[in-house]
Amino acid sequence: MYIIIALVALVFVVLVGVVIARLQNVVKGINKTDSNEVRTPGNKVNGAMFIVILVFGAISITWSYLHAREFFLPEASSIHGRRTDDLFWFSMGILTIPFILVNFLIFFFAWKYQHKKNHRATFYPENHRLELIWTIVPAVVMALLVFTGWKAWSDITSDAPRDAEVIEITGKQFNWIARYSGVSDNKLGNYNFKLIDAQNEVGIDLSDENSFDDFTNPSEMHIPVNRPVLLKIRARDVLHSVFIPHMRVKMDAVPGMPTKFWFVADKTTADMRAETGNSKFDYEIACTEVCGQGHFSMKMRLVVEDEASYKKWCAEQSTFLQTYPEYLAKVPENLKAKAMKYVPAEAAAPADSTSGGGVGTSTSLR
Q1: How high is the pLDDT of residue 353?
Q2: Cα 362 from Cα 365, distance rounded (Å)
Q3: Among residues 171, 218, 183, 181, which one has the least CA distance to residue 199?
Q4: What is the CB-side half-sphere exposure of residue 348 using CA atoms within 13 A?
């Protein structure tokens, strides 16, 4: 151990000596009367190389952009998505102008003002007009970009319209679960994390009558085209993030802190298949947070369809109580009569024959 420390100290001392020697050479060069003397033999070569790099870099950047265009996402499939894209390309266009100008001047000036004997640079101790220009112009541009971004974000994250289709999406390790508000009232029932179990994966609270017609689907999500859709987003365990790239939808799913996002999809899955020429195209809901070893599997198929097809699909789904009629026992006595119509007849029959009412149903199931 002591030998290693001694070797490190020795190397450090040698390096300090080299640096001091180099500094002495620099000081001697500064003190010389002929400050125009240049020891570098490749002065012109270095200047020319800046122009070569400038041209090569411009060609490379242009080629890279044109080559990558085929891998860009297609036009957004939602109204706010196209607005987001327009804002993105507007910002890119504004920022590209100073990017090109500044980088051109950096490389061009390095060649133009390379060392020349008896040539002295112009020195401005102060220039208020120049300082005002390079302060005010960027400030105005940045204010414009910030305001347009803030306005777009405020509109996108505003309250959803009253007629929006309400769907809850819950992330858990490692899949998504969609819960629908049924076909009766478009109102999601309450939930309680304490009620989560092997069947009731999202903690549906059956003490709320709005939950009687709720149904879940862990394999795919269906939404209607040209109608507002409000996603109520939850996480059951760790941080997840709902991402629908073609809709330009992205919102974190945070445990204990429900979030939301509403949008209007205006291209059905069939439209996108025709537009892309891919008969197997499907929208996808992905997770963009590294939420554990099974993160790669957190994806859900999204189907966008016309209103009639969407309503037909919803009507074909079994409510939670129809799938698990034994949970009728968790319904309060005063609400059992309302809940009975969501329970299969064969499950309710024994209870009816026992007492002829909702209370008897509860007893038999318990």
Answers
A1: 42
A2: 5
A3: 218
A4: 18
Query: In which element (H, E) is residue 235 found?
Result: strand 228-235
pLDDT range class, residue 19, cuts 50, 70, 90: confident
152: three-class secondary structure by DSSP: helix
Question: Cα 366 to the chain's mean position, in Å?
Answer: 46
- Cα 16 from Cα 5, distance rounded (Å): 16
Helix or strand or coil: residue 261? Answer: strand
User: For residues 205 and 256, what is the distance between their CA atoms, to the nearest angstrom?
Assistant: 16
* Distance, first Cα to last Cα, the chain: 72
CA 10 to mean position of chain CA atoms: 52
Helix then strand then coil, % of the chain, to nearest 5: 50, 20, 30
pLDDT reading at 147 higher than 60? yes
Res 351: pLDDT: 46
Q: What is the pLDDT of residues 171-194, one digit of tens each?
A: 999 999 999 988 777 788 899 989
Quick one: which of 203, 286, 305 has its CA closest to 242?
Answer: 286
Give the 3-state secondary structure of residue 220. strand
DSSP string, 161-190: PTTPEEEEEEEETTEEEEEE-TTTTS-PPP
Q: Quick one: pLDDT at residue 356?
A: 38
